[in-house]
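Bench log, entry 3. Co-assembly request; chain sequences pasted below exactly as received.
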Amino acid sequence: MAKSNSWISHIETFVDISSSLSQQTASRDAISVLLKSDLLTIEVLVKELGLYLTTTDYIIRGRGILLLAELLTCLAAKPLDSITVHSLVAFFTEKLADWQALHGTLIGCLTLLRRKSNVGMVTGSDAKSLADSYLQNIQVQPLGKQDRLLCFEIFECLLNHYPDVAAKLGDDLIYGICEAIDGEKDPECLMLTFHIVADLVELFPDPFGALAGFAEDLFDVLGRYFPLHFTHPNDDFVVKRDDLSRALMLAFASTPLFEPFVIPLLLDKLSSSLPLAKVDSLKYLSHCSVKYGPDLMAKHAKAIWSSLKDAICHSPQESILSRVSESPDDVGFLDDEIAKEALLCMQKFLLLEDGLFLSLILEDEDIELMLRSATSVIKYNDIPVENRKKLYALGCILSASAKVSISCCNKMFQHFFPRLMDILRLPKNCSTHACISDNIFSTFQQLNFGALYLCIELLVACRVLALSSENLPSASISVDETWCALLQQIFIPLTEVFHFILINSTSQDVCDADIYCGVKGLQILATYPRCFLPISESTFENILTIFVSILTAGRGETLLWTLSLKALMEIGAFIEKFHDSEKTSSYLTIVVEKVVSFICVDYSTMSLPQQLEAISGIGTTGPKFMLQATKGLEAAISANFTEASVKGNLKSVKKLVPLLQCFSNKVLPWFDKNGGFEDVALRFSVSIWDQIECNYTFNIGDQGKELLDRMMETVKLAVAGCSENNQGLILEKAYHVLSNTSFLLKESMPSSVAMKIEDSQLTQSLNPLSCRDEWVVSLFASVIIALRPRTPFQNARVILKLFISIFHKGHLPVAHALGSVINKLPLSRNIIDVSSACTLEEAMDIVSKMILCGSTPLRKSNVDNGNESPNRTLMVSDDDLVEPNAIVGLAWIGKGLVMRGNEKVKDIVMVFLRCLTCSKLGNTLLQGSSEQDAYSLVMRSAADAFHVILSDSDVCLNKRFHATLKPLYKQHFFSTMMPILLTSIKECDSPTTRGFLYRAFGNVISNAPLAAVLIFVLLDGLSILSMSVADRDLTYSLLLVLSGMIMDESGREAVTDNARSTINRLIGLISYPHMMLVRETAIQCLVAMTGLPHTRIFPMRTQVLQAISKALDDPKRTVRQEAVSCRQAWASIASK
Amino acid sequence: MVAGLINANPIVYEKKERRGRSVPSTADGDEYSVEPIDQLEVFDHIRDIKDPEHPYSLEELKVVTEDAVEVDDKHSHVRVTFTPTVEHCSMATVIGLCIRVKLLRSLPSRYKVDIIVAPGTHATEAAVNKQLNDKERVAAALENPNLVEMVDQCLAPSYD
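Structure output for the full assembly:
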């Protein structure tokens, strides 16, 4: 047992209202730990508490009771014996009468009531007496919010955990609850209130029982909250309006006893002008009607229907056009929430009791009127706006009710369809084409838009119904249903009508709305589930042919064209979804082949963008169609490529670009998403290489530049998505073609490809590449760029050497490829099993040997030529030869190295720096102008190399092309480079050189992450500048900038991240001997640093204090004064 | 705690004007010249210490004056003589402790600081002096959290 004096002090602390909240909590927790570990029993505790629980000072008594209650809350999971529980309950029951110290008592009661049976529950009789005392003593309304909340929780707990007790209480409980919840306004309490009502109703289910007498009173209390409306913005409360509204709805619907009060209230609110009230009423109405059941609702049906009708008809409308153009399965077409809810509500009623409600709809005179007014005018454009609205509303009602169930659908069809057919003047019974052809074409002028629109609405609705029933086999629809029979009789003339509209779409009489109807109608008919409407193959094919002929009619991209394509895509998607093999084959032959055929022939009525849109659109509807489309596209590409490359056909060149664009932007991503990418990509890449291989007379010319770029992009994408194996195949193929290129064949009788390449370097360096070579090399580079790191890469050395010799000519893709190779080569040999492969180290050896050492072909060629040409090559300090193109190449290699985090990048950067700072270069700049240009060109490229290294590239070395990325490589490079650059800038005395150094500096800074940059540069600049006396003013200025950053809100983040280095630098500056202002400002900055998060700066505290104590002995008085306050600031962060 | 104040109604004097900031000149010689710690600087450190009993500073109560500070920068020695407001003032040791702590925190560590009660101004002058200049006892006093809290309150910067 714990020593009493150890925990009695805790009690005192808790009861003492002058002690802080945290102290109270701590002392309570301390006691609860003792209780939990059985070092202290409840009995002892209560005895010790004794006086605190009974004293006449109500504040202290309240605290004492609260302590006991909170301790019990802590012990909720600890088993207590029944005697303890009993006496505790008795205590709290008694204390309920003590209104001055109620808070603790309420907590105590709640905690006890909530105890689970396995840890010692309150017995029924105890709960009963507690509830009695509660109902007798507690007045909920006048209490504070927290206490009211507790009161409601006790009610809820009683109802849920002690239903027997609650039931015994009967009227008293119901009355007490009514009284308690009356006039409650706090959302949190209301939430509980609504739950309590729902629970209460559950407890007294008997319709003639205890509750019946109170139903009106109870609803009187509840009904006032409807519709729920927050006068303050929603965010202020834990409970959201929607949740609360739902809870109220559940309470409303909890018992049919509320029905006489709820429905009139809802109908009343439905006619209010507040949109929120309307939406809520409709939601409640749907929910309540389901709960109350059809018998109770029947008497309200008429009133409800008329309210619903008003809500649907008088809501703001969107245009019919947008309605018609929606996809058929899309139920959420209405933006307008009132009408949407009203329709939903109507559907609920129809589901509930279709006979009565449906007859209300069918026999409604308003509906009849609406139908008449909507169909009274023939042309859409002639219908007045008011009637258009009516038409739209009627369409909504018809389709919504037809969607509900099969019987509804039948009745709607029976009632409306024959009439609509009459209006349209279509024969009602006709199943062949023959009997209609005469009268249709004469009636087009009289084709009634309104009837057509309603017709389509009905068709859409029953299609949705049919589809949904297909998903639920239990509710299958037989073909003998009335609507099916009706539809079968009529669909052929309907097809003709829709077709007829589309044929005449160019005529003046046909407006956009008609076109919508026509396309939509045909699309619906074509996508009917086979089992309900056995459309013959010929009709289906007929519809497809109609659409295809619209596509190919060559009228440009009209509304009709776009809609038809969309409809075709819908039909394709439908076929794909329902695996209809016969329809699939007709779709393939009629639509896909037709569209594909257009792209393969030169002449077409469609423009190329249209063709591509059609082919990619139709392809995306299903794998079979996409495969077909892709074959066509590939055939077109290869045909045009042959045409372009062999004959130099400019037209083909121009056509190829959009073709490739379509292939890389639409087709490849689709396969990537839906599978099958590898095959397509592999086939495409191999076929391109095949064509290049067989074609030795390549003459595309300068116009081909764009094509080449596009082709490279496509090849890169295709290769990048392939697996290692397929990449290996493509690479092999490409290498095969490369090794037979003309510039490698020029050499006489070479023994091997490798030898050829080695030898050719000497002669190649100065000759420009032929067109074919250019293509071969560029595409080969593209393949290399897109390789995965683990793809077996053979002949690496040969390729490297070849690339190096080519990029000296300024061939950028090759430079990219080199960078990629260096980035992805394995570090060690054990992964590689091919002898001709090489490791990164070997590759770097080759690179440095060829570029940086004296044995490069460049230098030899210059020597061979006999004339020194400084325009092309330049001597750098220790006899290295570097030219601008080589620098660009080196930069990409450097980028590859930086990204994989390899240290060798330093060697490359050093070359750039030597180019930048070479004194010879700087001096020669003063001489002849041509030489000067050349030198400045080199320096400029060297400076820009830093941009290449640090910036992100789209064409290579990114995630898409599988680059090896080390996290934070930019920061790393930045922090290693910056000191070197800064020193060079500082040491540089020539203004031109300094200019280029700044250029490099700018490139590095602008590409590195900014926050890290600034603070980093500042600190580093300070450390370097503070070393010499001459820069003391600059040091001071930089320090002022730093102090500005520390004070500034946004800069402070960066400083916080670098707190350690910043403080270290400032400490260094405290002893800066050359300027008092620097020392003073540094100390002031240190004071400001104490405003940063203490977790960051606390580790530096000792260090700062030591440094500051030295500053106390500073020669200058001002510094000493600042030091005193700084010391104070840093010393006190420990005590806060 | 003793009920009531020891000196319920002290005389309050005016504050002296502060020394302005010396204008730094640009000459190199000035930059490197040394400003030795002088009487006024030390006085500046202690003049704003608040009296433990009253919301007045030691300067306002004339417990310390500039003349009562002796500084020997070369030998790193400071002697502060303070005058309690009343002879029997039991706060004298606390005031002395405050002065000592403040100087401990503000002066370079090379300094030796002596703090004495002005002769003839306090009933137990010798005892107080002995207590204030005994390193061990000062250190022991600073181990006492209550005393440290009191000292910190006196040393807290005022913003008037």
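Helices of chain B lie at 28-32, 39-47, 92-106, 125-132, 135-143, 145-155. Residues 92-106 of chain B form the longest helix (15 residues).
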